[in-house]
Design a protein that fits this description.
Layout (H helix, E strand, L loop, with lengths): L2 H13 L2 H8 L3 H15 L4 E3 L4 E3 L1 H27 L5 E7 L1 H6 L1 H11 L3 E7 L13 E6 L9 E7 L2 E5 L1 H7 L12 E5 L6 E7 L4 E12 L2 H9 L4 E5 L4 H6 L3 E2 L4 E2 L4 E6 L7 H17 L2
Parallel strand pairs: 3-4, 3-5, 8-10, 8-11
Antiparallel strand pairs: 1-2, 5-14, 6-14, 7-11, 7-12, 9-10, 9-13
Length: 299
């Protein structure tokens, strides 16, 4: 029996079908189907139940999948052990992150990581949409979240907690006068990250833990933080963004805190991984780089 056939079978199960697995492996679907069929013929059992729309593992297929997955993980561990002995770090790391994290966090980290690890290739997938790590073949994801992430099957490593603040241009704030209370910002024009809702609010908290909900009028909505802060610097309204994103504009004087002493959220930044077992050296090295450097960048 060819071990590659077991690998192909595992990919079909994890990706939810032949089409998705073939795209991930970058091989023809017909070849993948043929290899899995040869595996079934060698074993003398049906591992997959195929219909026109869905491919699912049979009962014996589920059992074979568990054993095959464990065996493949052990081979990965063996490769990791050899690479450590030879002090070589090579391979491809696929990382998923938001557009903002790509622009204002990883843009400072990835160039140095690649310089330090010439044998590693990084594939960055920047999107504000949540992706399935296993089905989409992602090694590492960086996520911002307010509460505990729901998928307990993933390895989660917390990195940092961010503060979001309200920002606006000095000229815009001058038109408001001295703002001391959140209510004074009610119904101000806002730059909003993501899709606008029918009614939008800033959820604010002060240093004592007091909270306030302030309605605002959406003037501009975008998935791109850079565009939003530029619009705020152009005096179009107020924007809520992570403090580190607006640090250059604060230093240059083109943006100011709209309501000092109040935050507009304190989300957690975490690393997510499908599994630590059998993790390739390149992925391990990248995760260690994130642990060491990303919290400093996000300050």
């Amino acid at each position: 029996m060819d071990l590659n056939d077991a690998f192909y079978f595992v990919q079909v199960v994890e990706k939810g079908g032949f089409s998705a697995a073939a795209r991930f492996l970058n091989i023809p679907k017909s070849r993948l189907s043929r290899r899995v069929k040869e595996l079934e013929d060698d074993l003398g059992v049906r591992l997959l139940q195929r219909t026109s729309r869905v491919v699912t593992a049979t009962e014996v297929g589920e059992e074979y999948y568990r054993h095959a997955q464990e065996a493949l993980a052990r081979f990965e561990m063996a490769e990791t052990a050899v690479r450590r002995k030879t002090n070589t770090v090579a391979g491809t790391v696929t990382v998923s992150c938001s557009v903002g994290m790509a622009q204002f966090g990883l843009d400072q980290i990835l160039p140095k990581f690649l310089q330090d690890n010439p044998g590693v290739t990084v594939v960055q997938r920047a999107s504000n949409q949540m992706e399935d790590l296993i089905k989409d073949g992602i090694d590492v994801a960086i996520r911002g979240h307010m509460d505990t992430l729901p998928d307990s099957s993933l390895i989660q490593v917390r990195l940092a907690r961010l503060e979001w603040h309200l920002f606006a241009s000095p000229d815009y704030l001058a038109t408001l006068g001295s703002v001391q209370d959140p209510a004074e910002l009610a119904n101000q024009p806002a730059m909003v990250l993501g899709r606008p809702r029918d009614s939008h609010q800033w959820l604010l908290t002060d240093e004592t833990g007091q909270s306030a909900s302030v309605p605002c009028s959406v003037r501009f909505a975008s998935d791109d933080m850079s565009t939003l802060k530029n619009a705020a610097a152009a005096s179009l309204g107020i924007v809520a963004l992570p403090s580190y994103v607006c640090k250059p504009e604060i230093e240059a004087g083109t943006l100011e805190r709209a309501l000092p002493g109040w935050t507009a959220g304190t989300p957690q930044i975490s690393i997510l991984m499908p599994s630590k077992r059998g993790m390739l050296p390149a992925v391990e090295e990248f995760v260690e780089c994130l642990k060491q450097d990303l919290p400093t960048v996000l300050e």
